[in-house]
Amino acid sequence: MPEVARFVVGLRLPVGILISSDGPYSVVSRSMLCGALLGIEEARAEHPGVVLVPTVRNPAGELPRYVAEASAMLAAGIRHVVGCYTSSSRKEIIPLFEKADALLWYPSHYEGFESSGNVVYTGAVANQHLLPLVAYLLGRFGQGASCDTYCVGSNYIWAWENNRILREAMGPAGGRVLAERYFPVGCTEFGPVIEAVLAARPSFVFNTLIGESSYAFLRDLRAACVARGIDQPGLVPVASCTLSEPELDAVGPEAVDGHITSSVYFASLGGPENARFVAAYRARFPEGPAVCADAEATYLAVRLLARAVAGAGTTEINAVKRAAASGSIRAPQGEVRLDPETMHAALTPRIARSDASGRFVVLREAAGPVPADPYLIRNSSRFGAVDLRPVLRVA
Amino acid sequence: MTAPRLIQNFRGCRGVLWGGGDAEALGRALARLGLSLVRTDPAAPAEAGGARLDPDRDVVFLDADQALDPALLLPAGSTLPDAPVIGLVGVEAPSRLRLLAEAGATAMLRKPVQGALVYSALFLGVNTYRRLRSAETRLAAGDRKRRGRRLLIKAVVALVQARGLGDDAAYAELRRESMRRRLDLEAFCEALFAPGSPFPAAWPLDRPSDRSFDPVPHPRGDDPNAQDADAGRRDRGPDRADAAVDGAGRRPDQARRA
User: Fold this and answer.
1) Which residue of B30, B32, B33, B126 to mutate against A (max A Cβ within 10 Å)?
2) Which of B9, B32, B114 is the closest to A382 by Cβ?
3) What are phi and psi of A229, to 5 degrees?
4) What ipTM does this complex have?
5) A73-98 pLDDT per residue, tens
6) Distance (Å) from the alpha carbon of B215 to chain A's nearest alpha carbon
């Protein structure tokens, strides 16, 4: 039967890409942008009936620019936007999406406690990153002796909420939070708190600093330990749910190894799907930035969006949400499935440690995807912790 | 007395919707937080009347736009409802808001209900209600002590006269004996003057197991304070597995549900 040339009338899918290429967290968000662009190319190949028309905008990490760019996209009739890294930016623009009845595909891992009807969440929440980290660290440090931690974080919701969850998870297991110190976003002066950490000698440091703050802290902590002849990764290891491959480049070779990260994706994961994805990413972006969890989640969001629109046959958001939550997708990290009730993704938790070559070596991996519990209704006690507050100081 | 612990996970709780139109959005939002939702017909209040609401597990969502007597939610003699009340506000007029205030609402949501802020309303609504309830219990205990003052004075005076003790020593002995019996001091003194009591001729008693000074239990109807004591007791919830002293003078066979 001869091939008949025919017009394929595609379903036009205008999609906004609202990701910062400049600004305080551009090291990670540029990687997310690369993930989005790769996702668009692969989605076009996979769903030829869906005509993706991307509009890419760079809010440079500034909240008013997120609002302005999102408003412009929605005014232009765009109903699906992939974007945002920080919770501040997401919370700033959600009302716009609710008003326009549009859908924000939010790919970053975050602290949870949200489920807007106008957002699809493809990043990890606390029961997929922080709680597995606590379980791992208690197991590693908590035998017999008490497991102590010193919390260092950037002064906003990511640190506040994670420190609370950490405190409540460690308490019943006999762990202690020695102190919580908060620093303005962008701060790079950590001399006094490093002295305090070395004096306190916790089992581990829990790091919720973001961006430049985190890199400066890791460099300075390592330097201070080297000066005293202390094996920092061995004696005062730093653990986080954030530190990722492109950030290891930013930390620098002197302090790159021995850091523990809890995340659902690392570039070094096995499996044919990840091998294919990493190879495609590196071929497409040979200059970098390195692929990471938030890049994989952004790539995933684009692929899920295209697949859902193809399946629903429309860009109408309720139909797209229903289609997105049906079935699963084979992602580089493994099988991923959206929960139709919360529009959060079931993801596979892993724990890994950075090595001197800037890669993450996986130490522990969950057997399969863990459903998201954004409100921790299955993963927290009825009551909050009794008010035995540690030393809470804002620098 | 410390404030009650904050509840942050409402899984297993039950929402009770009084009035209101479309319950679907509220039901979905509550389901995401682990709660079920039932509707009550305000015209048939016996369904969700005082006897059936559990302050530890139920949360009432009260639609302010309906014609409703808020007293239906309040037990006799109290300004606090039987369970936390969250108001659903449509029209922001004083007559509607007054209904919510009188019903003891401690949080609110905007109508039409959407997912956002439901968790916050639960958090503030339930925890503020628990603090108010704890405060009511403390006030009731204070009232009880005030009422029992007269008999406490009588007992001190009786011991001073019958035993030649100083008043401080007399008070200390009364306190010690009441603590040995795990009784509220005022209730113990009331029992000392019950008919047939050997006090102050027979004093002190060496065996705390001697129950002759146990107060006669009040039938519930007589003493409104008994209900408030229960309210305080219910506040503890099933998570507090403590073998607390029963300060209201109940014997083990009269232990209330914790």
Assistant:
1) B32
2) B9
3) 70, 25
4) 0.87
5) 999 999 999 999 999 999 999 999 99
6) 36
Inspect the interface and report whether the beta carbons of A375 and B119 lie closer than 8 Å.
yes
Does residue B230 register a pLDDT over 50?
no
Task: Say if B7 is an interface residue toward chain A (CB within 8 Å).
Answer: yes
Q: Contact at 8 Å (CB) between A30 and A21?
A: yes
Q: Is the peptide bond before A286 cis (omega within 30 degrees of 0)?
A: no
- Rounded to two decimals, the pTM is 0.83
Question: CA-to-CA distance for A110 and A267, rounded, in angstroms?
Answer: 20
Nearest-Cα residue of chain B relative to residue A340: B32
Rg (CA), chain B: 23
Closest-CA residue of chain B to A380? B9
Give me the amino acid identity at B149.
R
Residues of A in contact with B57 (CB under 8 A): none
pLDDT for A359 beyond 90: yes
User: Residue A71 carries which side chain, given as an amino acid letter?
Assistant: S
Alpha-carbon distance of A381 to A365, in angstroms, equals: 25
3-state secondary structure (DSSP) of residue A159: helix
**In a 3-state reduction of DSSP, which class is residue B68?**
coil
Q: From A124, A98, A99, select the one nearest A109 (Cα to Cα).
A: A124
Are A117 and B114 inside 8 Å of each other by CB?
yes
**Chain pair A-B, CB pairs under 8 angstroms:** 47
Q: In which element (H, E) is residue B176 found?
A: helix B167-180
The pLDDT of residue A1 is above 60:
no
Name, in order, each residue with C-beta under 8 angstroms of B118's C-beta and a sequence gap of 6 or more: B26, B29, B30, B33, B109
Say whether A377 and B9 touch across the interface (CB within 8 A): yes
Instruction: Collapse the DSSP code of B117 into the 3-class scheme (helix H, G, I; strand E, B; otherwise coil) and give the result.
Output: coil
| Cβ within 8 Å, pair A382-B6 | no
Residues of chain A neighbouring B115 (CB-CB closer than 8 A):
115-117
pLDDT in tens, B67-123: 888 888 888 878 899 999 999 999 999 999 999 999 999 999 999 898 889 999 999
What length does chain B have? 258
CA distances from A220 to A194, A203, A205, A226, A250 (A): 8, 19, 14, 10, 13
Number of H helices, E strands in chain B: 6, 5
Each as own residue / partner, the long-range contacts of residues A282-289 (CB below 8 Å, 24 or more positions apart, any chain) are A284/A34, A284/A37, A284/A38, A284/A41, A285/A34, A285/A38, A288/A246, A288/A249, A289/A27, A289/A30, A289/A31, A289/A34, A289/A246, A289/A249
| CB A268 within 8 Å of CB A361 | yes
| Contact yes or no for A375 and B114 at CB 8 A | no
The H or E element containing residue A385 is none
Encoded tokens for A29: 């968000």
The strand pairing partners of B162, in sequence order, are none
Cβ contact A271:A336 at 8 Å: no
Position B51 scores a pLDDT of: 47
Helix, strand, coil percentages in chain B from 3-state DSSP, rounded to 5: 45, 10, 45
Question: Within 10 A of A49 (CB to CB), how many other CB atoms are there?
Answer: 11
Tell me which amino acid residue A283 is. Answer: A
Distance from CA of B8 to the nearest CA of A (A): 6
Question: B256 in contact with A at a CB cutoff of 8 Å?
Answer: no
Q: Which of A91, A93, A115, A167 to mutate to test the interface with B (most CBs of B within 10 A)?
A: A115
